[in-house]
Amino acid sequence: MAETLDLKTLSGLSASELFKKLGTSERGLTPQEASRRLKQYGPNEFADKKKLRPIAIFFSKFNNSLLLLLVAAAVVSFALGSRIEASVILAIVFGSAFIDFANTYKSAKAAEALQEQVTITAGVIRGGELKERNMRDVVPGDVISLEAGDLVPADSILLEARDLFLNESVLTGESLPVEKTPEKPDEKILRLGTSVVSGKGTAIAVATGTATSVGNIAGKLKRPDAPTEFEKNLKEFSTFIFRTTLLLVLAVILINIFVLGHATLDVFLFAIAIAVGLTPELLPLIVTSNLAKGAINMSEHGVIVKKLAAIHNFGSVDVLCTDKTGTLTEDRIVLMQSLDEVGNASENTHYWAYISAQHQTGVRGVLDRAIEEYKKHDVKDWEKVDEVPFDAERRIESIIVTSEKKGTVLIAKGAPEEILKLSKKLPEAAKTMIAKTYDHLSTNGFRVLAVGTKDVAFKKTPYGKEDEKELTFVGFLAFLDPPKHSVKNTLKKMAVYNVGIKIITGDNFLVTKKIAEEIGFTIHNPLTGDDLAGLTEHQLRRHVEASNVFTRVNPEQKEAIIRALRENGHVVAYMGDGVNDVLSIKEADVGISVNNAVDIAKETADIILLRKGLGEIIDGIVEGRKTFANTFKYLMMALSSNFGNMFSMPIASIFLPFLPMTAPQILLNNFIYDSSQLAIPFDAVDADFLERPKKFDIGFMKKFMVIFGPLSSCFDFITFGVLLLVFGYTNGAFQTGWFLESIATQTLVVNVIRSRANFWQNGGPSKALAAATIGAVALAWIIPYTFLGHAVNFVRFGAYPLILIAIIVFAYLFVVEIAKKYFYARYGRLIER
Question: What are 677-708's pLDDT values in tens digits?
Fold first, then answer.
């Protein structure tokens, strides 16, 4: 029945034919029939409201190859008797998952609360009774009453209307209201989610829920989320770690058992310890800690992060696509100028328009409110006599007012060309000047109304359109959705951080051009929806690079622009709040919406702004870059001294008649230095690192490992020589000496490699990071003198060996400082977009 009917076909039917077709009447459905149809068609919702399931959210966090690798290592450790080590690893894994879960669940609850703040109702006639009902209960065949402020609750056909104007910006991007009349088929069609600006109307619901235009868009959103770029890169990094680990473990096992003939169990434990040492088990915790800190910082600035991984993507964004309404502009129509017929400022024009607006019944309410807000006049002497309502044919409206002092006056306002047609005969020079003024305002992006007046005789019979002639042309009113005052500075900030902006709007080019000029935005190669329609996929990819303004585009074209930019290698953020934006929000790397957006936009977005604006977005991008930078510091640490030390172990095990470090000693070392890195999220980030988005480049990281890993091993071998040749240490004493050197080099090196600048420049490491790393080394150096040191077979040293080990550590840090300059001079910085 209703679900198979086409709105265009139905718009050509009369009211009686519609009632018959949809099985209803002007009295509406009976309550029993409405209940039956609700069961048949389901609730009037266009997206499934999935209940939050904490357990499901928690276990979803384990869909991570690195976490699974750590769990496997813990299971093997436990099976081979290393229960303490297994417990430590599992505690880290579950701690990381819990932090991620806690933030995700909190954000999901916040987003859910935003959506439940308002219960939307609709005026529905059933059994002849008009009553407000929950919008989700509207069914096909319901007769709907519409007034100013109402949302259209279903795809409908208009039956009758009086001065009905709808805001369709959620579908079209157009900021100005559109008139709806039952006389024209195209103007009879009403879409779910649009809102009534002014006037009244009655309509019949044709399609609800997933059968609506909005529902059709919602259906396209059911494809699964693609992994973020950071998630893909992290997976690639985890695979690299796994392969390296597997290679080293197999080498250690084969050499020690079959070549050197060492005990099998000790060798297995040693191999597992190397595997754990190579695996940056705190990476998930470091990542989630960074993201959680970023999410907290962003929430303090009115930004709710629904998906933690989006923060890293946010930091990688190099192109922001946005509509202009509400982001670049104030999202409200304002009267900018009141002019006479030749374009000079005129208070008289506004005076007559103000009287008209004051006595208006609601037609074009958004423009009337703008007129009233522009300036106040004393009009209490005027009384309304009558009005001639606006209609699409005349494109003007008239108010007739009377005053004891000034008599009776008809005030007409509307389309300038229509007011001019109805005006007294004017000299050609005057008509040319009026046309020139109108053209100038239009080409500058203003929405223009004209005002005309006429002295008329007072009469008790209704006035009509026949009275709208021989008008005196008074002047023009120029309206605009004005730019936000903060946008200019925000655009400068975006330029500093190398984020390009592209405006994608359903509005016309002239309006967009005016806003661009106001905010200092230079337009390059603008394209319209018609221009895009004729492009191939290859041509589109080329054009989206050269163009930064796209006007009169439909939702599918918006989505295609985003996809083309991503295929060109950009990381794209898209900001939108309407139904026409949801496909683009889904397609973008980072989908952004706002608190007062339509539900489907909020559900689709990764990030929700409590205040709509570019300032919040660029702050979020910078926060994302900080989280990326601090995560990268941990990886650099792991790839330098961590890998170097783990490479040293299998090599040393070949030449030594004993294991260079036992499994418990390796795991204790690993746990202490990794724990110190938990302070990384609180470290400052160099300003120059934040200037451009960076790519998570495995090739760059391998180069770093190839240089700094062996460099660390060199100092390990120097330590081996000192311990063996200078002191003659073996077994426990050798293991103690290398443990002390290893923990110090691994832990302290992050303070050097955290920045491309010298250690002491840019303020150095944060107090938290410096305290955590120095404190961890101090704790490790105390352990040999405690019961724990005795338990893991450490030996107590005197002052002399400790001094020599300390000299080796400081020499290592000094050489890393020099090598760092060589590395960045040769290989540059991390790849920028």
Answer: 778 888 888 888 888 887 777 778 888 888 88
Cα separation, 433 vs 448, in Å, equals 16
Mean pLDDT of the 712-719 span: 91
CA nearest neighbour of 322 among 119, 578, 670, 144: 578
> What's the farthest any 2 CA atoms get from each other in the chain?
120
Write the CA distances from 150 to 7, 26, 153, 159, integer angstroms.
21, 20, 9, 17
Q: How many distinct helices (H) and strands (E) make up the chain?
A: 34, 21
Residue 581 a catalytic site member: no
- Find, among 319, 305, 360, the residue nearest to 623 by Cα: 305
Distance in angstroms (rounded) separating the CA atoms of residues 672 and 88: 11
First to last CA, the chain: 53
Residues in the chain: 833
Sequence-distant (≥ 6) Cβ neighbours of residue 172 within 8 angstroms: 506, 580
pLDDT recorded at residue 319:
94
DSSP structural state of residue 445? T
| Cα 554 to Cα 751: distance, rounded to the nearest angstrom | 51
- Please choose, from the candidates 302, 324, 266, 245, the residue with its C-alpha nearest in 3D space to the C-alpha of residue 65: 245
Q: How far apart are CA 609 and CA 617, in angstroms?
A: 8
497-518: b (≥16 Cβ within 10 Å) or e: bebbbbbbbbbebebbbbbbeb
Could you give the residue ranges of the DSSP H alpha helices within 255-364? 264-278, 283-299, 309-316, 347-358
* Amino acid (1-letter code) at residue 771: A
- At 1 the pLDDT is 44
Neighbours of 212 (CB within 10 A): 25
In b/e form, how buried is each residue of 618-639, taking b as 16+ CB within 10 angstroms? bbbbbbbbbbbbbbbbbbbbbb
Token digits of residue 494: 């975006």
Q: Render pLDDT for 268-309 as a digit per residue (tens, 0 to 9).
A: 666 766 666 666 656 666 677 777 777 777 777 778 887 777
Contact criterion met (CB below 8 Å) for 186 and 9 = no
With beta carbons less than 8 A apart as the criterion, state whether 489 and 506 touch: no
Q: Which DSSP category does 303 fall into? A: E
Residue 281 is given by DSSP the state T
Measured from the Cβ of residue 42, the count of other Cβ atoms closer than 10 Å reads: 14
Residue 151 token pair = 């949302």
Dig out the tokens for 590 from the structure: 């980072």
Catalytic residue among 323, 386, 683, 716: 323
Classify residue 642 by its DSSP letter. I
Average pLDDT over residues 115-124: 64
Secondary structure of residue 325 in the 3-state scheme: coil
By CB atoms closer than 10 A (0-12, 13-18, 19+), residue 751 is: buried
